[in-house]
Write a structure and sequence with these properties.
Layout (H helix, E strand, L loop, with lengths): L1 E2 L13 E14 L2 E14 L3 E5 L6 H8 L13 E4 L2 E2 L5 H7 L4 E4 L13 H9 L7 H14 L5 H4 L9 H14 L4 E5 L7 H18 L2 E6 L2 H7 L2 E6 L2 E7 H6 L4 H9 L48 E4 L2 E3 L4 H4 L8
Parallel strand pairs: 4-9, 4-10, 7-8, 8-9
Antiparallel strand pairs: 1-12, 2-3, 2-5, 5-6, 10-11, 11-13, 12-13
Bound molecules: adenosine-5'-triphosphate, iron/sulfur cluster (SF4) and magnesium ion.
The site of iron/sulfur cluster has 12 residues, from loops.
Length: 344
Amino acid sequence: MAAEPNPVPGAGPPADRLLEVEALRAVFHTAEGPAEAVSGVGFTVERGEAVGLVGESGCGKSTTALSLLGLLPPGTLAPGSSIRLEGQELVDAGPASLRRVRGRRVAMVFQDPIASLNPVMPVGEQVAEVLRLHPGMGRSAARGEARALLEEVGLPRPHRLLDEHPHQLSGGMAQRVGIAMALAGRPELLVADEPTAALDVTVQAQILELLARLRRERGMALLLVSHDLDVVARVCDRLLVMYAGEIVESGPTELLFSAPRHPYTRALLDARPRMDGPQGMVPGLEGAPPSPLRWPGGCRLRPRCPHARLPGCAEVQKRVELEAGRTVRCGRHQALGPLEAPGP
Ligand SMILES: Nc1ncnc2c1ncn2[C@@H]1O[C@H](COP(=O)(O)OP(=O)(O)OP(=O)(O)O)[C@@H](O)[C@H]1O
Ligand code: SF4
Ligand SMILES: [Mg+2]
C-alpha cells in the first residue's frame, strides 16, 4: 500500500495518458478571507476514458473543472499545482498557449445551456465561429461543417436550425448546440460540468446517452462533473469522489458501487436517488458540508462521519492506493473494510 500515489520520477507518463493533475490547490481571495476550494487534488485521465467527478455542492468540482481550461481568475492556483496535457504543463502556460488548448484540445460544456450561448447570434454562426479557429476553414465550409455537427448531436432539421436564435430552442436542444460547439474544436478531452442539471429527467437521459455515444465514436476522453452519483455512473468507467476540496475515494465505477471504502462514498450511495435535497446535499450525513473558509481540522468528514474515532480521525488523512487505480483517504479503511449497504 503506497501513500499519496505519484508517478515514478523520471519514468514519464504512460503512452495513453492524456491528462495528469497533481497537487492542484485553488484559493479564492474573498472579502471574508482566503477560501481554499481545492486542496491538493490529483488524478489522471487516459485517452478516450470517461471519468466522473462527483460530490456535494461546494466541494470544488467546478473549480477543478475550470482549472483544466485555464478559466480560474489569475493567481487562484497555488504554486506547485500541476496540470499536464500529454506532458505539457498548463498551469504556467501563457495566454497564447492556453488559447491553443482551450476549445481545441480541451473543451467544456456548461450547466446552463441557454445562458452559455450568445442570445443575439444565430446558432449556426456560433458553431461556425469555433470552426473557423481551424486554419484554412472558410465561411461556407464552416457553415457546412456546423450543419454536420448539429446533425451529429441529434438535432432535427439542422439546415433550418443554423439560422435560429438560442431563445427559439428548448433546454435540451440548446445543450445539444453547446455540445456541438464543444466538439467543433475536435477536443481530445471534453469537460462537461453538470451538463444535465438544468434539464428535465427524460432530456437528461438523452443528453447522457449522447455524451456516451460521442465519446465512443470520437475516441474522445470525457470528464463528467455532477453532484449526482447516478448521472456519472451511467456514463463513466471510473469515478473520483470529492469532499471538501479533496478526492476522498477513486476507482472503477462498479467497485465504488459494490464495495465503497470511504464513509462519504457510502453516504452518497445511501442518498440515491434523493440527491435532490437543498443544493444537492446528502440526506444520510449529519449537518451541512463545511466551508472552504474554514475546513475542519484532521479528517474533513469527521464532524459528519458516523465512523469517526479519536485520536486517528483528528489527524490529516493521507490518500492511499489500495490497488492500481483505487485510492481512499480514510485512516480507518482497513478497520472498516468494504462499506457494503446494510442488509434489508
Ligand atoms: N470565484 C469565486 N470566488 C470565491 N469563492 C468561490 C468562487 N468560485 C467558487 N467559490 C467557492 O469555492 C467553493 C467550491 O466551489 P465550486 O463551484 O468549485 O463547487 P462545486 O462542487 O462545483 O459546487 P456545485 O455542485 O454547487 O456546482 C465554494 O465554497 C464556492 O463558494
Ligand atoms: S478518517 Fe475517520 S472521520 Fe474520516 S472518513 Fe475515515 S472514519 Fe470517518
Ligand atoms: Mg459546480
